[in-house]
Every structure is written in C-alpha cells, then in structure tokens.
Amino acid sequence: MKDHNVENGAAAEVSRRQLVKYAGVGATFVAASPLAAAAPAVADAGDNRRHGGGSRGRVWRAGDHHVHSEYSGSYDTSTNPPTFRKGADAVYPIVTNAIMAKHFGLTWAMCTDHGGPTHSKVNLEQAYPDLLLSRQLVPDVLQFWGMEFDAPALDHHTLMIPHHKDEAQQLYELESRFAKRDAFPADPGRDTEAKMIEFLKAAKDMRNKPLVIAHHASRSATGLGVYGQDTPREFRNGNNVAPDIYVGFEGAPGHQAGPLNGGARGGYGNYPTHGGFDQMTARVGGLWDALLGEGRRWWITATSDSHVHWTRGGSDFWPGEYSKTYVLARQDYADIMDGLRSGRIWVGTGDLITSLDLTASSRHRSAAMGETLTVSRRNRTDVDIEIRFRPLAGRNANGDHPEVRRVDLIVGQVTGPSADLDSDTNPTTEVVARFGPRDWHKQGHEHVIRHTLRNVETDLYARVRGTSTDEAEPLADGLESPWDDLWFYSNPVFVQVR
C-alpha cells in the first residue's frame, strides 16, 4: 500500500519547485521590463491614516479582486468527467500574478478563475494548492481565495471567500451547488434568477460570509440604459435578499489596455465605457445613483481582469499596473474584507492619486466613506464636506506624472426604495461643485478642498470624482490611450436627517 502522505508531500515539493521557477520568471520579467523603473504608487499612501474609533492601524491598501491565472482553462467534454486543460484563456501562474501585484503596489489580491463543467473539483484539487504555495512565496500580498462565479441568470461575479481553514471546501460547496456552468451534463435549471436568489440565501446563512460583486455589468448592454445580462431589477432583488453579501459592481471594469492593441476599453464592444468606467457608474444620476438614492449600501470597485498582458497580444494590464481598488484597512484578511463590505473604498486609474478621503461633518460629528452622519431636523443644518487627496509624487507605470485637473462633488437625495425595480435614474443627483487647482490648498503631502452644503433638510449622500482631463462629464471611450484619460471615484458618505 502506498503511503499517501509521502506521495502528497512529494507532489507538493514538485509543485513548490515549479512555483519557485515561475517566481523566478516573474522576477526576471520585472527586472527586464521598462516598467521596473516605476515605483509602486502605494508607497505614498502608507502615511495616510484616518484616526478615530476602530481605525487604529488602518491605511489605504490597494488591491484587485478580479485576476485570472492559468486555471482559467478549457474543457474536453468528450470525456466523463470532462478533462481540464490549463492556460487556454488566461496564461499566468497564480504566483506570477502575485509577484506583479506586489511590484505595482498592491497589498492584497484575489485569483478569480473562470468556471466550467466540474470546475469546482479543479479549483479544489489543483488551483487551491498552488494558491497556498503562492501565499508562501509572496507573503507581502494577501491572496484571497474565490473565483469568477458563473452567476445564475447574470454575467460573471466575484465570489470572495473569507480566509479560514475551510475556505477551499466553502468555495467547493458554493461552486458545485450553484455555479451555472459547473453541472455536467449541463443543467438549464442552474441559469435562473431563482437559482441566484437561492445561492445568495445560502451564502447569507454561512458562518463565514462571502462577498459577491458584479463584474463588467454593462459589457453586454447594447445602448445607454439598454442593459444585457445584468439588469437593475436583478441587482435590487439580490441586494434585498443578502445586503451584506451582494454589495456592488465594478465601477471600472478590467481589460483597460484594449485600445493599445486596437480594441475597446473593457471589452465593451456594443456600448462603450466612459473614461474607463461602466455606464452604470459614469452617468451622473444613472443606475448607481438610483441605488444609492434608495439608501442601498452599494459600492464600486476597479479591477484588472488580467488574462494576458497587452505586450503579449492581450488587452490587459497587470494587477495594479493601471487600476486599483483602495480599502481602508489593516493588513489583515478579515479587515480588508470588512472594508469591502462596508464601503471604505475608493478607486482610481493610472495612479492619478494615491489617497482620497471624503468626510461629512456637522456639530462635532463626522462620517467618512461608507458611513452615515446623522443630523437634527429641528435646526436647518449645514453639513461641511472635506475632500483630501494625495497626488502621485513620482511616475506611474507608463512613466507619466499625471496631474489632477478637476475634482467634482456629486450629491443626491435618499428617498427610499423605488416602486419601479427597473428604474436606473436618480433625478435629484447633480454635480453641486467643481474644483480646480485654485480651489484646493496644500496641507503636507495632501490637497484639501472644503465645501458646505447649506440648510440640509433631507437625507442625502455625497460622492467625489476627479480627472486628469478637461471633460466636464466623462466622454464615451474610443481608441485613445487609457493613460491619457484618468479618473478616480470615491464611494459615498451618507447624511441622515432625524
């Protein structure tokens, strides 16, 4: 009889040697690349701490929750079970992605490979052991476990699993039971909204609660407000069922390097992105504002969706090379996940800035992104808005020193749930103030903007965006270089009048 412990240990050592080899390849690529001269922008953000209750040790930590490895492969369905082949869709080992994420200033990342027939076993038996070894080889990057979930009736979603000893089994359970492409033979009953609701209910009841974030939500849209696989109704229904699980969508999708090879930003071939951002986010008073206007805690992120780097014929940047999702958190799996769940998030492209704080305050009380400031209805209350951002001190991965040309303060009313589940507008939302370089002052390494909302009598939210361009509103994207069209967006702070 074989000693399976010895056999498994030998296999693990072979895998370790392979990963070390891949790690060396990744390090060689970094050293040989002209990108090596670009200092990781996150280094600037390390001193940017927000003080207050429960925030000790929290800084803005850049990450990416949508990255593909060689385990986004293909399947030979002539065999039963299907035979999985690595590297058909994405090509890099998990550890290579981690090395590049670290190089470009990320402190957390997540491998989100495509599913397929019986892929739950591939994840469990092949990909997860490689993730464990990658964690050992690149310990400076917290590497979450999860996948690009084949959401029933919807486009792809992040399914992020909390870091715990049974994380692999938790993903296996959810993927094998609910991912619409995992069944073999195919099961049409997997691809219904009812199945998606069943999945969210199961996730909500788990002790270790996962996170679900929609990917490239309008990539299948055929026009402005003419949605495809993902619809406002489905977002509302899912968020109603599991508001602490189903928490947002990618504001800026991946595949941003598409124009560098003659393609569309984000792979949005029907209706384009605007400034690299999905129409659901970029349009003031659009779907994101409609959801926020209902009081939903619905957040945006920005990712690479890295499959194949653009210099090798793909449409992608490396994790952190162009897009970053910043979370205010300690360097801790649980706290980063809590930040994502709670909306302590801002996003940016091209390292236009390296930190962003948005605060609403009144009468010695204050709230920041993802939080709620409560003010009294008895007095006509002013609410002070403070915006702090830190521009990039050096150069970004393209060798540029980008500059912020404008910052916009956007405010909308919170009026409660909409009777129309298909509604994608909030007519109360508007840009209430625009600020240029003459409107902010320097305080240390940060630029500070202050604005007062006078006589606040209704519930509202405030959010911020900024740009390197002179566009009053982000224009529909063509084949311009993404490096010439940079934006950052905050998540909202809420004001409640009581």
TrEMBL record:
Gene3D superfamilies: Metal-dependent hydrolases. This is Phosphoesterase. InterPro entries: Pol/histidinol_Pase-like, TAT_signal. SUPFAM superfamilies: PHP domain-like (SSF89550).
